[in-house]
């Protein structure tokens, strides 16, 4: 009955640990003890490794992740004092302070137990052990260990989210045909596990769309972690990306979980990917190819289940030609490449975006909602937008404060006339213009007025669709 109960428990632990059976390392110099423990723990569905020398314990924990270690306190060198076991305990804790260690001895004295606890043992078992008690202690330590690991992972994730503020899901404005098509493409690709490279000018929305891709994917319950590759210094690259164990460097007092591990099972977004130094590109390539890595200072290889999305405003093919970016890395990153059009290539989005930002900032600063005058709309639509959507958002934010009334005028935008592309038709002399010239002039003016929205232009001119297209053809507009 008891056996059944614990079998069930081990199964639950197994499920919690991503379907991997919890792995236990046991060390004792008595082969009968090892045999008995092995039989007991295997029957509970644990993955058991048994060794009879302290040295083997140290070698193994450097290579493999164990959920719990059970060690005898006495070995061959001196069979009663417990000192050899305490030395082993100290050495284990030096290598991995979070690994739960349960100590076990047949010759226990209160002093040795107290000493073991002081050195970091999490529990104590007296030989001959009671099966139910031993398994109960293991079960408790595995659960505590998992919670501690989750806690430290969450703390690091939270720190990253706070510092980078990337994961907020936002409203995506996409009225233009090309952005609508692009969103549909992203939604379809999201369901695959392919690596995606977003390209496009600064401020076009690459980061936002990477986050949207994650949101639409089957990984959306898992982390979306963004790393600005330009912000990671060459010397810290490995430690930041792969993490490090305690003591890996002279000043590393704490172990650190790297970005790859933090994003495991989710999506890792490598922003500004062109900024990764050539010397580190090979290391990134290996992780992408083999889906495994080692922490700095550790020989343990860790497996990864991760989707990589990256972004750049650089021409990576040109960088490959100039030997600044590895071609094999580019091929790994751009299984699919998505180019985000600049704002001047999707004029239909400009006014909806401006209205969206105006609403957003009015709400944020608790001011009355403002509208845009027709002239202001014209200027917004015809400006070149070198900084794309980010620039538009800044200009609208500023205009909210500069405008003195409830309508935003051109002067509130602070855009110098030089950068505005003047698409308005040449002025027409009604005294000398032909009927055709006048008609062409008005159609052109209306098209500009309605940001090339055909339906609105047709309605305002009172034409049928076919009559409109006949004229477009005739006047070559
Ligand atoms: N379609 C959109 N709808 C609403 N807001 C958008 C849209 N696209 C971008 N933005 C906003 O514009 C700003 C810039 O977007 P984002 O940071 O994603 O651009 P980026 O291309 O990654 O920029 P950079 O190349 O400089 O890193 C952000 O505040 C983002 O929320």
UniProtKB/TrEMBL annotation:
Q: Which PROSITE patterns match?
A: RESPONSE_REGULATORY, SIGMA54_INTERACT_2, SIGMA54_INTERACT_3, SIGMA54_INTERACT_4
Instruction: Name the InterPro entries for this protein.
Output: AAA+_ATPase, AAA_lid_NorR, CheY-like_superfamily, Homeodomain-like_sf, HTH_Fis, P-loop_NTPase, Sig_transdc_resp-reg_receiver, Sigma_54_int
What region holds the Response regulatory domain?
23-142
Keywords tagged on the record: ATP-binding, DNA-binding, Nucleotide-binding, Phosphoprotein, Transcription, Transcription regulation
Under Pfam families, the record lists: AAA_lid_14, HTH_8, Response_reg, Sigma54_activat
Modified residues annotated as 4-aspartylphosphate in this record: 72
Indicate whether DNA-binding appears among the record's keywords: yes
Superkingdom is: Bacteria
Q: SMART domains given for it? A: AAA, REC
**Cleavable signal peptide:** none
Residue span, Sigma-54 factor interaction domain? 172-401
Q: Please state what the protein is called.
A: Sigma-54 dependent transcriptional regulator
Source organism of this protein record: Psychrosphaera aquimarina
């Amino acid at each position: 009955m008891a056996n059944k109960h614990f079998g069930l428990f081990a199964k639950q632990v197994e499920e919690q640990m991503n379907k991997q059976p919890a792995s236990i390392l046991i060390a004792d110099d008595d082969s009968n003890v090892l045999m008995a423990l092995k039989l007991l723990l295997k029957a509970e569905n644990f993955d058991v490794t048994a060794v009879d020398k302290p040295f083997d314990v140290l070698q193994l924990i450097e290579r493999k992740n164990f959920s719990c270690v059970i060690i005898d306190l006495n070995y061959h060198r001196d069979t009663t004092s417990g000192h050899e076991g305490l030395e082993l305990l100290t050495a284990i804790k030096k290598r991995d302070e979070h690994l739960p260690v349960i100590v076990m001895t047949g010759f226990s004295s209160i002093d040795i137990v107290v000493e073991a606890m002081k050195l970091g043992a999490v529990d104590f078992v007296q030989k001959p052990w009671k099966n139910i008690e031993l398994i109960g202690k293991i079960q408790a330590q595995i659960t505590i260990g998992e919670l501690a690991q989750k806690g430290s992972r969450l703390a690091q994730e939270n720190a990253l989210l706070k510092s980078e503020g990337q994961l907020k899901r936002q409203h995506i404005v996409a009225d233009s045909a090309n952005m609508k098509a692009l969103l549909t493409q992203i939604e379809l690709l999201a369901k695959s596990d392919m690596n995606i490279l977003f390209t496009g000018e600064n401020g076009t929305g690459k980061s936002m769309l990477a986050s949207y891709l994650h949101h639409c994917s089957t990984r959306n319950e898992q982390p979306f972690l963004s790393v600005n590759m330009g912000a990671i210094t060459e010397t810290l690259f490995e430690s930041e990306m792969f993490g490090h164990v305690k003591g890996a460097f002279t000043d590393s007092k704490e172990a650190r979980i790297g970005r790859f591990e933090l994003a495991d099972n989710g999506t890792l977004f490598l922003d500004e990917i062109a900024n990764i130094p050539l010397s580190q590109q090979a290391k990134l390539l290996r992780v992408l190819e083999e889906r495994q890595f080692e922490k700095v200072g550790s020989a343990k290889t860790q497996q990864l289940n991760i989707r990589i999305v990256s972004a750049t405003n650089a021409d990576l093919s040109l960088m490959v030609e100039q030997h600044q970016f590895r071609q094999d890395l580019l091929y790994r990153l751009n299984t699919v490449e998505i180019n985000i059009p600049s704002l001047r290539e999707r004029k239909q989005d400009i006014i909806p975006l401006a209205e969206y930002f105006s609403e957003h900032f009015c709400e944020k600063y608790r001011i009355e909602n403002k509208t845009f005058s027709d002239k202001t709309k014209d200027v917004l639509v015809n400006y070149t937008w070198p900084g794309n959507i980010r620039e538009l958002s800044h200009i609208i934010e500023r205009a909210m404060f500069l405008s003195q009334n409830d309508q935003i005028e051109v002067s509130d935008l602070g855009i110098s006339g030089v950068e505005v592309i003047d698409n308005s038709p040449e002025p027409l002399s009604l005294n000398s213009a032909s009927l055709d010239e006048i008609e062409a002039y008005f159609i052109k003016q209306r098209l500009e007025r309605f940001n090339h929205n055909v339906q609105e232009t047709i309605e305002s001119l009172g034409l049928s669709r076919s009559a409109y297209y006949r004229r477009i053809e005739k006047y070559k507009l």
